[in-house]
Amino acid sequence: MDINAFVEGFAQQFMDTDPSEITASTRFHDLEEWSSLTALCVIGFVRTECGKTITARELKDIDTVQDLYDLVQTL
Amino acid sequence: MAYIKAISYYLPEQVMTNQQLLERFPEWNSDKVAQKIGVECRHVASAGETAGDMAEQAARRLMAEHNIAPESIDFLLLCTQSPDYFLPSTACVLQDRLGLPKSCGAFDFNLGCSGAIYGLAVAKGLIAAGVAHNVLLLTAETYTKYLHPDDKSNQTIFGDGAAACLVSGDGGFARIGEFVLGTDGSGANNLIVKSGASRQPQPTGQVVTDDEGHQWHDDYLYMNGGAIFNFTLDVVPPLIAELLAKHQLTRDDVDYYVFHQANKYMLETIRRFARLPQDKFYVNLQQTGNTVSSTVLIALSQCRDRLKSGDRVMLAGFGVGLSYGGTIIEVI
What we know:
The structure holds two protein chains of two kinds. By secondary structure, chain A is mostly helical. Chain A has helices spanning 3-11, 36-49, 56-60, 65-74. Helices cover 30% and strands 24% of the residues of chain B. Chain B is built from nine helices and 15 strands. In chain B, helix 4 links the parallel strand 4 (75-79) and strand 5. The A-B interface holds A 15-16, 35-37, 39-41, 43-44, 47-48, 53, 55-57, 59-60 and B 29, 32-33, 35-37, 153, 210-214, 224-227, 229-230, 233-234, 265-266, 269, 272-273.
């Protein structure tokens, strides 16, 4: 999955946030809608769409969507 | 051969609606959460109402609704993680309260979301071994009593309830097939009430913030949602494949999938991940929430009318332990 498809899939995990607001450089913890529920959805997205397992701690320790993409590439 | 003969369930009278939760947690986006989690209200046991009380109600309904004589029952299994006492087994208390014969075996077993599946497996084993003939399987849970008052995430998801199922060697509406069961105790800390039992008898008052930003109180129920979700996504697709292989079936041979009703989002993700068709996949926890060990039996009871003779239904449970299990039943 390339970064564009990853950003698109990441953005689909949000219900109230316009997908155009989310880019590779978005600091997702700062999004108003970011919560434990959206974190759960992102964990599910990475597991089901990328076949990789990430933890809540790993999500907590990174800032941007690009960081998450980079992390997933290393797994 | 062992069969599911009848199922009934009981939900406590008191109801907690999303509106009531919103009044307690004004910052909470109830519409969106309800849409995602799939719960509009959940039933809550009252202060003096125990899992044993609810199990008794479910059993009484089963006997009344399906004309089952207490004397015909020769074994009682109760799945609960909120027993009435440390000892004796709540099942023993229920033998007397339900008027079951003194020749009836009875014990509790401690499991959560996989409990109904394990109960069916044990009941089938007792029948196959000739130990018992009519096994009353009860599931009952009062998780809401374990929740911290400020824990809105888990208060949104969980509801209390009990289910009763008669498993018989004498026939019934569905024949119970083969089982696949599994455990990963390394994840025990991901869904736990730490204090109150032998490891930590006294409340500690300790609280830490976990990686998801939730407060982890030793003295209340803690769930690491991400870890449970990853566990489920790891074990359920192979569970489905193993069950199909054991029954020499393909996906197309299964008419219905009734899985533990954890929450709507998780169920939908599992369904898509495992490539199961939406019209064969039961999702209904709007009015109950996640009732832990009772969800599979409640769901099976609710969709009973849709099932026709010859239908094969895959049942699966997964969660606290961490533990999982599944079976396929065939409607007679």
